[in-house]
Amino acid sequence: MNKLFCVMMVAVAAMLLAAPAWSIPWPANTTVTWYHALDDSAIGVCPAGDFSQLDVTVRDQDNQPMGGYPIAATFSNALIKANPGGGQIFTGIADAAGHVRIPIAAGVDNSGLVAIQSDVTVTCGPYTIKIYYDLFVVSPDYDASYYVDAADYSVFGSHWHINDPTGMKDCASDFSRDDPRVENADYAVFISHWHH
Predict the structure, then answer these.
(1) Which of 126, 156, 179, 193 has the fewest C-beta atoms under 10 angstroms from its C-beta?
(2) Hey, where are the domains in the chain?
(3) pTM of structure
């Protein structure tokens, strides 16, 4: 009996030593940034996905890249509508270096003057790697029709030369974020997304 117990313990120990090491995303080793963010507190989204994009390089607890893992950005505000489908989750798969750039192909159902805010939770599989709180989200697609057209131009025109409501550059049409007023620089950004 003692001999059998010892043999079993040796077998269990051998299995434990041979068990594969599991990688988990490590926030301290992972970088999450916004490519083409408007500033530190705001991003832009467009039906073509060519405005702000989430840029992630995910690495594990041993600082090794985690290639092949799914990365997701989930917006908490239901007014942000993915193209197509209308959801608030945007995904990508990390390459061999653990990197992925996720386009946010969406519109924002907001014809009001003040930009909407949303939390954005970034995950790698089941693990949360970063949360952005109260991020301003603007879009030239004000009606979330997945196409920037005359209806959107009408909303932009209604914001023309209006100062941001709070003076804090939070207007839904303040795309350039250079001052708290909707002007030519904002128009240039809007028109660059025309018919997307």
Answers:
(1) 126
(2) 23-192
(3) 0.84
